[in-house]
Amino acid sequence: MHSDFVISQSDGRPMYLQIMEQVKQRVAVGEWAPGEEIPSIRQLAMALRVSVITVKRAYLELEREGVILTQQGKGSIVAPNSELGPRLYDEQFRERLEQAARLGTLLGLSGEEIARRVQDAAQRLNGGRFTKETV
Amino acid sequence: MNDLSVLFEGVSKKYPHFSLEDIHLELPTGSIMGFIGANGAGKSTTIRILMGLVHQDAGQVRVLGHSMPADQTAAKLDIGFVSEDLRLYGAATLDWHMGFMQPIYPRWDQRYAESLLRRFDLKPKQTIRGLSHGQRVKAALLLALARCPRLLVLDEPTTGLDPVARQEVLEELMAVLADEERTILFSSHNTLDVEQISDRITFIDRGRIIDSDDKEVFLDRWRRLRLVLPPEVDLPRLPGIVQVGGSGRLPVLTTNTFGPAMVAACAQMGATVQAVDTMTLEEIFVANVHSRREGQPA
Domains along chain B? Predict the structure, then answer.
């Protein structure tokens, strides 16, 4: 069920962030459905061979973000909130935009230029879809 | 209920050329602590005091509720100890050792012992003398694990193991912690192993504990900041910076109390913060040792 999590020591990001990201992905694609029970902190720690405190940290942050609910002594479930999938994508979108903006600023691009490039990218993508549909 | 499996309070021990000074240690039940130090830092001495093998000159040591070294006989029934000088009989087989331990320890689990034989790929009929170093370490671990002790104390358990054996050992240690009543203390200078599986981390250097905290706290608070200074601006002293490296206009700061305020303070003095890097446990350990040693006589 969860042995397909991949935690990398050379990833550069802390392990708890990697765990959070992979839980969110599972929730976003619906593999873990709202209300469904997920592995306990200890179970996941055993399976990933990472310390309990690292998984605990990831679960605490996930709970703070409203992705999961943890009940003392009862384990954790995916938050019963049907809007979760779209919200997680939205969050990812915001993060990537910030990343793009940072890179753009490093390159010396103005705000307008960055916006124009994002617009171009969206148009290219939509254009591609449009031709596909007409073919 | 006592929720500390190990407690050291103001423990010291003097030798002619080395002394352990004012050691405080707390290990909560159900967790795993990595004990990190250079060679000769005092790891093994601390562990030997914990086991009652060496008597402290001063201070209190409590292990699983027993006062050490006075109650060591009672305590040892519940402690599994594996050290570098693995005390196994070279002429006897692993099978013989298993048969020897079984009647001594009431919690000995023969089925678990047999499953460990398979997982560690050990042959019970082989004499200890005929085993490689790695096999010998795994044999000693098997004997300690199958007793199902409430506390496992492992002095350098992964030293000299090949990568496959190391992962097998780490996996078994994690499996032990599925039981919330069981606790592990292991010393290592392999910080990667410690970083992977420890809940708490303690650094020891020159006979003193220099830092001890939750692993996540360590990884959160230590950061390296790479700055670009405008010309003719000197780097002012900032609180919480333990090391300054890099070059004049491109300083690299190491902090053990990172927070957003630090980035703001750098920006205020006109510096551009190029990057804020997380640090590995190894980098944190080395920076910690260097910063504590500065201004201290060797």
Answer: 4-214 (3.40.50.300), 223-278 (no CATH)
